[in-house]
Amino acid sequence: MPDPWWTAPLLLGLGGLVVLALTLLGWPLRRAAPERAAVAATYRAVADLYEAAGTSAYDERRQAVTAALNHAYDLVLARRARQHGRAPALVRLLARLNVVVPLVEAAPAAHLRSRIAGPQPAGVPAAVRDLADAVAGDRAGAPSSTCPPRSCPRRRPSTTRCGTR
After folding, report:
1. What is the spatial distance between Cα 153 and Cα 160, in angstroms, rounded to a whole number?
2. Which pLDDT does position 49 carry in this prediction?
3. Cα–Cα distances in angstroms (integers) from residue 86 to residues 16, 35, 93, 158, in the given order
4. For residue 69, which of 108, 42, 43, 99 has the smallest C-alpha distance?
5. Who contacts 25 (Cβ-Cβ below 8 Å, separation ≥6)?
6. What are the E-state strand segments in 83-130?
7. For residues 52 and 58, is the Cβ–Cβ distance under 8 A?
């Protein structure tokens, strides 16, 4: 122990203030980082779900997607409730999180298709991972990869709207 009795508490308090100052210096730069990371993790969980479509690991990955969605919505909506007004970055992040929902809703159809017709093309999970990278990097615009081509051509209806040719 240091010689005067008040030296140890003083040094401890000064150390705490240094840590607090360093934390506060980084805060403006990483303000929405936890929310962005949670939304990107949700996209990655959905990509894993599409990779597991048609396999026995599908149910486990589906539960992981549900947990990731819950966590991301908890973080984003809690942050939005604390913030006054509309923050454009937070609105954009919530919109990106809402885009995941149709992908999750389409996963059971992809699972059924994979059980019948074979595994999904590798481009599907890759495209979702590119979206996750765009969210994590806070980039706007289209992802770098392209979606795979359709495996079967669309059929044209043989009749018109009225039922005649």
Report:
1. 19
2. 94
3. 34, 16, 12, 50
4. 42
5. none
6. none
7. yes
